């Protein structure tokens, strides 16, 4: 718990400040799936991601604690943390980038398509990614959704040979959040 609090405070101190131009959530929803047909479903969800958007510059940052991902099968979650993501050595995933063409004044209640480009850091490795996103105004704040795919090899995530036919190297990731 202390580690989670420390990383959250550090994250906000490094990126945020506390001005009106920042929209924040601590309940971002990140889901991933690396399932292969005919085998056990490999997917998890983390509902505690922190996402910060600077509405003046379009800069965006996100932080998710690896141990925050929940699986239907406890043993799968244990293997994910101990063997695949090594969450004791690499406790978090971060993203820092920019929403290109973002203009708070042009948002409406209809989805607008944007491109987000930045650095995703996972498992101690960084990779620049470019992803599509849909952003709109809601009564609660700003809704942001994105779906994209990463390759586990890009982040040096080793899949043991014994299960390599049961887990996809192409990992589908979905992010949904309401920034307030």
Q: What do these coordinates show?
A:
The chain has 2 helices and 8 strands. The protein has an 8-stranded antiparallel barrel with strand order 1-2-3-4-5-6-7-8. By secondary structure, it is mainly beta. Helix content is 14%, strand content 47%. It is elongated.
Features:
single chain; 8-stranded antiparallel barrel; 8 strands; elongated
Put the structure in a nutshell.
The protein has 180 residues and is mainly beta.
Strand arrangement in the largest pleated sheet: 1-2-3-4-5-6-7-8
Helix content: 10-25%
Question: How many strands in all?
Answer: 8
CA-atom Rg in angstroms: 17 Å
N- to C-terminal distance: 24 Å
Number of H- or I-type helical stretches: 2
Strand content: over 45%
Task: Explain the layout of strands and helices.
Blueprint: H1 2-15, E1 22-33, E2 43-54, E3 59-65, H2 74-84, E4 92-100, E5 112-122, E6 125-137, E7 142-151, E8 170-179
Antiparallel strand pairs: 1-2, 1-8, 2-3, 3-4, 4-5, 5-6, 6-7, 7-8
């Amino acid at each position: 718990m202390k580690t989670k609090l420390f990383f959250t405070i550090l994250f906000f101190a490094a990126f945020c400040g506390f001005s009106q131009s920042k929209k924040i959530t601590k309940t971002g929803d990140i889901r991933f799936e690396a399932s292969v047909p005919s085998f056990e479903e490999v997917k998890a969800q983390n509902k505690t991601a922190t996402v910060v958007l600077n509405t003046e510059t379009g800069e965006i940052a996100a932080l998710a604690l690896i141990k925050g991902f929940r699986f239907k099968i406890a043993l799968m979650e244990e293997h994910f943390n101990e063997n695949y993501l090594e969450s004791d050595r690499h406790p978090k995933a971060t993203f820092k980038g920019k929403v290109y063409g973002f203009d708070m004044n042009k948002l409406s209640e209809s989805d607008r398509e944007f491109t987000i480009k930045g650095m995703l850091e996972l498992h101690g490795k960084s990779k620049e990614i470019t992803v599509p996103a849909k952003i709109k105004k809601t009564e609660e704040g700003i809704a942001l959704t994105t779906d994209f795919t990463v390759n586990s090899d890009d982040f040096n995530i080793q899949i043991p040979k014994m299960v390599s036919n049961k887990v996809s190297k192409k990992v589908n990731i979905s992010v949904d959040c309401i920034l307030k």
